[in-house]
Design a protein that fits this description.
about 120 residues, alpha+beta, 5-stranded antiparallel β-sheet, binds zinc ion
């Protein structure tokens, strides 16, 4: 599938293979129960570069999601790109909030968290 310029958002399906405490930068340390998670984000430009960045292990940790993906037993197992805003993906994805405010610093839609446990 060729890159589509109308893609504005994406969901990462993430597997946490074992329950562990992960420090999310200055945000704090949280317990992530083993299981599957969904994270939705946006990239208005060059979404493929953003996704490649998420898939890369070596990088300067910047966003909340970087800290989660940096953990040894955490991996992305599926990526979905979309033309709808990230907050709509969060709403459609369901799941429960584990870390309030995760990835939602700029959220104006009241998602509560852009990371949910499925
Ligand atoms: Zn949101």
């Amino acid at each position: 599938m060729p890159p589509n310029t109308s893609w504005v958002s994406y969901s990462l399906f993430i597997r946490v293979k074992k329950t562990q405490n992960i420090t999310v930068g200055r945000f704090g340390r949280f317990e992530f129960t083993a299981g599957n998670y969904i994270y939705s984000g946006s990239a208005l430009r060059n979404i493929l570069a953003r996704l490649n960045r998420h898939l890369r292990k070596e990088k300067k940790l910047r966003w909340h999601i970087d800290y989660l993906l940096d953990a040894e037993t955490v991996e992305i197992f599926k990526i979905v790109v979309s033309t709808t805003p990230e907050c709509e993906l969060v709403a459609a994805g369901g799941g429960t909030i584990i870390v309030p405010g995760f990835g939602a610093s700029d959220c104006r839609s009241g998602c509560g968290s852009h990371l949910r446990r499925l």
